[in-house]
Structures are given as C-alpha cells and as structure tokens.
Write a structure and sequence with these properties.
The structure is a homodimer of 99-residue chains. Chain A contains six helices and two strands. Chain A has a two-stranded antiparallel ribbon with strand order 1-2. The interface between A and B is medium-sized, with 23 and 22 residues. Chain B binds a DNA duplex (30 and 30 nucleotides) through helix 4, helix 5 and strand 2.
DNA sequence: CAGACAGGTTTGCAATGCAGACTGGTCTGT
DNA sequence: ACAGACCAGTCTGCATTGCAAACCTGTCTG
C-alpha cells in the first residue's frame, strides 16, 4: 500500500465531509463567526448547518460560545486547537493523496 | 462565497469518497487492474470493494472488461475518459479548496 | 399587534458505507 | 476422486449519514 493510499485510508471523515470542510476552513481563516454568517457563506440550510456544527462540536473540533449582549443572544463559533491540528493533518493527507 | 467554498460545494461525491478515490487513483496510475489486485492495494473487504466498483461503473467512471483466458474468467477494470476527466476536476477542486 | 428575522432544534426520509454470509467456479494436495 | 483453499464477486442486514422542511422561542419593526 502506497503512501497516497494510506493517507486516504486514514482521513478523518468528520472533516472530509465537504460541508464541514467548508465550515472549518472558514473558521480557520476568520477565527470566529456566528451562525448567520456561516449560513450565508456556506449556503447550507439551517437544519443542515446546525447538524454539522453539532457534529464538529461533538468531535471537539470547535467551541461554541453563547453569551448575551443585552437581551440578544450572541453565539460564536471558533476552532479549538484540536480542530486546527486536525485540519492541518487533513490538508497534509489530501495533498499527499493527490500528489 | 469564495472560490474555495464553491469548489467544495461542487465536489463530486462519487469520487470524494476515500475508498473510491483510492480506486480511481490506482486505476489512473496503472491503467488497468483486476479485482484481487485492487483488493490487496486498498485493503477493503470484498463486499465493500465490489459495491464501490459498482458505483463507479454506474457513474460511468470505469469500465469493466470481462473475458475468459482458457477456463479462467479474467475481469479487468479501467477508467473511462469521463472517469479521468472527473478525477482531474476533483483534484483541481480540492487543490483550490485546500489553498 | 402582525409579520419579519435571528438562532437554532427536532423530525422524517432516503441513501450510503461497511462487514459478513453466501455462491459458483478453479486449482492443489493426497 | 475428494477435501480444502483460493478467486471473484453478489447479496443481505445494519447502523450512520446528509439533507430539507417543519417547528419553536424570542426580538425587532412598522
């Protein structure tokens, strides 16, 4: 089994999913974002986005920060260090795989 | 929506699946292969490999060539021109997405 | 007060990936 | 000749997904 194949066999499915790869890539660039912004950028449906965020949170790849600004709930999402590491690993794996 | 995101949103799920990406990558390199060889290279189970090959055939990304060599059935798999093009497109998309 | 919008969660459905059991045939050893 | 191993797959059943639409709570606007 070649390196390229080994790389593919070991990719993290959580990140590999295109919708989630969009999310983590965005968060990697902007550091922090809220739900609506992610919704607009990704063009996913709300339910879908919510589900993907939940999955990423469950994998501890992102951290949800809910707080109030006055009466308005302000939720922001950002990558955890683990999330950043996994994204880097994923990128490296895919680069290896794609030659 | 950035180019990177657009690229991700449009990836072909048939090829994106790691197991199938292994298969098409292998076939791209070797031009032609049989079931056992693919089985050994990918380390998938037979049922799994069979299902993925069927899906790739259904998408017209690969072509199955069954013939007899004496009494022994000799099946070989190879990419179609469409399969090669789609792999190229996928690679380009992922490179764009991963920066 | 009605309606729009933010910020999600819950539900239901169809498709998928996966492994293991099964089939049908050939080859090898005794 | 027969048992067992191997090749080449297919079939089946299961659990997990991804997806969209419906729903919910609360705020803000006209």
């Amino acid at each position: 089994m070649s390196d390229a194949l080994r790389a593919l066999a070991s990719v993290d499915r959580t990140i590999h999913e295109p919708a989630r790869l969009m999310i983590v890539s965005l968060l990697f660039l902007v550091k922090e974002a809220d739900f609506l912004w992610l919704l607009n950028q990704t063009e996913l449906t709300k339910g879908n986005l919510s589900a993907h965020l939940a999955k990423l949170e469950q994998a501890a790849f992102l951290q949800v920060d809910k707080r109030f600004e006055g009466k308005i709930p302000r939720t922001s999402y950002r990558l955890t260090p683990l999330g950043k590491r996994e994204l880097a690993r994923y990128r490296a794996a895919m680069r290896t795989a794609l030659g």
